[in-house]
């Protein structure tokens, strides 16, 4: 897919400015941008081919919200989807909370993993049964190494044997430099929004992103 910005790469600050432009100046609600992003990401994953269960690993921020939108659209298309929320529902960003509530009303399969002392064996078993794991833990705003328990969650995902699909940027990869910040998701495919991120110019980032797909969010 081609970028609507025609080959440009966006830094972390430029991503924020782009969202601010869409929301403040154009008047597009942030929830609409999230819907467009999640739906577009789901469409990419469907094209890649889904043969079995999909596990969505969602964090508390808007990246997690994108994953929740994906879960809804994949479920509507008849795919077997499980959402693992690695946060308390009360911690979710405003837009992610909207998507979480929709998922509850639709009675999608959800599990809340909020304990730092998570059962890695149980978690690894869930990931091990997946065809695809969607990494929607952290987005472009991550600036430091992931902390517990996310380093162990990443370890479970990378060791699962499932195909991994990262949303916007693999968790643990720096948006601006394309350098691993420590424990980092290794994805076969990454769907990113509006334009590739600045760090994707670093050839070493391919080790973590796999093939990058760019999705328009309607601006």
Total beta strands: 7
Strand order, largest beta sheet: 3-2-1-4-5-6-7
Percent of residues in helices: 25-40%
Biggest beta sheet attributes: 7 strands, parallel
List keywords for this structure.
219 residues; alpha/beta; seven-stranded parallel sheet; 7 helices; globular
Outline:
With 219 residues, the chain is of the alpha/beta class. Helices cover 37% and strands 16% of the residues. The chain has seven helices and seven strands.
Describe this structure in words.
The chain is of the alpha/beta class. It is 37% helix and 16% strand. It is built from seven helices and seven strands, in the order H-H-E-H-E-H-E-H-E-H-E-E-H-E. A seven-stranded parallel beta sheet has the order 3-2-1-4-5-6-7, covered by helices on one side. Helix 2 crosses helix 3 (62-76) and helix 3 runs parallel beside helix 4. It is globular, with a radius of gyration of 16 Å. The chain starts with 11 loop residues before the first helix and ends with a strand. The model has no long low-confidence stretch (mean pLDDT 93).
How would the blueprint of this fold be written?
Blueprint: H1 12-25, H2 30-48, E1 54-58, H3 62-76, E2 81-85, H4 94-105, E3 109-112, H5 120-128, E4 132-136, H6 150-158, E5 163-167, E6 189-193, H7 206-209, E7 211-215
Helix pairs in contact: 2-3, 3-4, 5-6
């Amino acid at each position: 897919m081609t970028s609507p910005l025609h080959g440009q790469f966006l830094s972390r600050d430029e991503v924020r400015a782009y969202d601010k432009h869409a929301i403040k100046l154009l008047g597009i609600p942030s929830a609409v941008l999230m819907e467009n992003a999640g739906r577009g990401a789901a469409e990419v994953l469907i094209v890649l081919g889904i043969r079995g269960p999909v596990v969505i690993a969602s964090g508390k921020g808007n990246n997690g919200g994108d994953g929740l939108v994906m879960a809804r659209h994949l479920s509507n298309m008849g795919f077997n989807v499980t959402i693992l929320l690695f946060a308390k529902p009360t911690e979710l960003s405003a837009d992610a909370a909207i998507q979480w509530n929709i998922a509850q009303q639709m009675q999608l399969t959800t599990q809340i993993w909020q304990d730092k002392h998570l059962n890695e064996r149980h978690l690894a078993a869930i990931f091990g049964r997946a065809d695809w794991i969607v990494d929607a833990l952290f987005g472009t705003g991550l600036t430091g190494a992931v902390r517990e328990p996310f380093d162990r969650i990443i370890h479970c995902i990378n060791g699962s044997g499932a195909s991994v699909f990262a949303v916007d940027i693999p968790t643990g990869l720096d948006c601006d430099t394309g350098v691993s910040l420590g424990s980092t998701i290794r994805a076969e495919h990454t769907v990113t929004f509006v334009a590739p991120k600045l760090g994707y110019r670093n050839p070493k980032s391919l080790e973590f992103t796999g093939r990058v797909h760019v999705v328009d969010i309607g601006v």
